[in-house]
Amino acid sequence: MSTLSATVNAAPATLPFLRRAAVLGAGTMGSRIAAHLANAGLAVVLLDIVPANTEGKARSGIASGAVAALLKAKPAAFYEPGNARRVTAGNLEDDLKLLRECDWIIEAVSEDLAIKQVLLETIAPYVRPDAVITTNTSGLPVASIAAKMTPEFRRRWFGTHFFNPPRYMRLLEVIPTAESDAVAVAATADFADRRLGKSIVYARDTPNFIANRIGVFAMLTAVRRMQEQGLTIEDVDALTGSVIGWPRTGTFRLADMVGIDVLAHVAKNFAHSNEADAAAVKLPAFIETMLERKWLGDKAGQGFYKKTGRDSAEKDGSSATDTKKNRLALDYQTLEYRAAARPKFPSVEMAKNADALSERLKLLLSGDVHKDRAAAFLWPLLTGIWNYAADCLPEIADSAAAIDRAMRTGFNWEMGPFEMWDAVGVRASCDRMKAAGEPLSAQAETLLTAGGGSWYQDTRDGRLVFDPAQRAYRPVEEAAGIATAASFRRANGVVRTNPGCSLIDMGEGVALLELHSKKNAIGGDIVSMVTQTLSAGGRYVREFRGFVISGDASDFSVGANLMQLLLAIQEGDWEEVDFAVRGFQGMTAAIKFCPRPVVAAPFGMCLGGGTEICLHAAKRQPHAELYMGLVETGVGLVPGGGGTKEMLLRAIDAAAEASGVSPADMPAKFARSAELQDALRQRFETIAMAKVSTSAAEARGLDLLTDADTITPNRGRLLIEARSEAVHMAEGGYAAPAARMVPVAGEAVLPTLKLGVHLMRQAEYISDHDVKVATQVARILCGGSLTAGSMVSEQYLLDLEREAFLSLCGERRTQERIAYTLQTGKPLRN
Question: Which residues form the Enoyl-CoA hydratase/isomerase domain (predicted)?
């Protein structure tokens, strides 16, 4: 084990005293860190300087203004707006005494060494002896910032580098110094892992740490290659986006979003590294000019790109027909803006047909660099990055795995540099580099001479990574409780599988139903696998004591497979559509009535049918970042897999609790109660307006999750925590629910809901087709045109859903909506 890992793993990873925190510096980064600490349940003090020439309450105006801005931030900084109440705004003159109550203090002021040092000297008298103090510096030497402080202060001092925006970017680089207390470092990292949802990467106290070191090198290498090959800014963004597993923004759009001044600051930190590094990331003259002109990107209104309306475009003499909202692109040779173009690279278009990144990379890099412009750019770019990352070992991190994790979670790369290298073949690519007389990292040479053919090896016991210092493979270090479906596959194998879903043994008597169709769209493969696996009396409910539905993709599920549905509609195969809806309803019924507990663990986008799967599970274990909703009305349909039915059942339960009236004992009175009317109205709005949560916490407010559903902040812990929940329920004597008979509101509420729809149409908020769709939703929620208090079964409600779904499928406007969404990914209001 390396010195760094030994230091941070030497201590117990618990920090029970973290209740209050302080963030010093209310800029964009500092305020968003404060917001995310509040998301984790901490009380937070946010302090900044006192503005000049202010008195009274305005003395804390910078911090209070930052909190107000957080409530309007996009993407949202808080899981839910109420979390803002946990943040107290103050200033660095009047409110330092508040630091005495804080367990964790984070310095996040300007990236100026002198300013940071003065700040630490100022706060020192107010900091408790047991408080942890960390810096969010993006690249200054952590030890140097606290160099003037006492040994006791330095013992509780280290780096915690968040990435912006802190709520969404998973990476937290933890940078201990030689004097940092191992217990404090490990315990703080554990808190950030479990409560803040961070992927922890331990970095050495070197310039720019890990992610910025590799990421900015990659960005500026792309700039240099662009200039050498005469490509445009749009060309480079097309070549360095999702096609190679990097964010779809590409290099220059990302730089505009981050801020070109930030990019320049990180680049200049390389001056503290070796001469080769400093030369490699030297800012080109045109970027220096942009900095002088304050063309800093999105925050300045212009950078590598500039958005403009038709009028301003015409004044510039440029076209306003750019399909990217009249975006202009910078011509870096003339420093003038022109209409942005859409580059076309034949090999890139061909590579996009490959779903797997590994296959895309092989296709892209196999091209002739003398004939294929894409290959001519990407081959030297990527091999240069891979070699540089290898050369950085072990200066910046313990292992290749740490660098890969940092790039995946800090820069949103689908694969880290070493994983990309493995994907295209290390030995073959090294042979190609040698044959062309291109440089090759000494670390890669070590790998090859030691007999290795890849940086990673997957074994039944786990993943191994090559350590050049030891000339051997060693286990990839992961915190306990982190797991993926892939890791369970390697360890336990696959019980059964089809193209859309696999059943995997998770251990402890629990099986995982892993969704893995394209975008996890729910088609026949998933429906049949889930139904057969969970059906009572089947083989698998005898073999396992619980089940988890989840996966490794970026999203839980985008919903039902609309392409399959549209094809059946266009062919007029109504029996097939009816069969598919019945099958979907059968799947959700199998989930709900399975004799073993089924825990759904949703994450990312969980839309339509994905939400219906979750609604029927015995329990949900959601990831904190959850975009959940019954969105079927957006394509002119209603939730037809039992989703509307389940929302009605939840409305009945909520109204019964609020009114104290028993639905079974007094069905007529209950069906006419104000509490039921209010509960139905709320669920009606959720479905009819296709509301989607912006977090798991917000999904609770939409009644898509319950208070009993525990939220997991760290995506990597989701499967283990879902498995634990399944085990807990099984050991607690879980019994499946019985099908229900419930009273419906019928004509007592249906006219009211219809009136609301009519008024929305009169105000021109919705279209005629929206009226038709919303009316069907209202009809199902009210149980049809029955007398209030009529008792109906769950199957009756499912039949209403199916009838409405089939009816709407026959509507031309619904078919247009489905086709438009499949083509654009957006809803059509027709």
Answer: 510-670
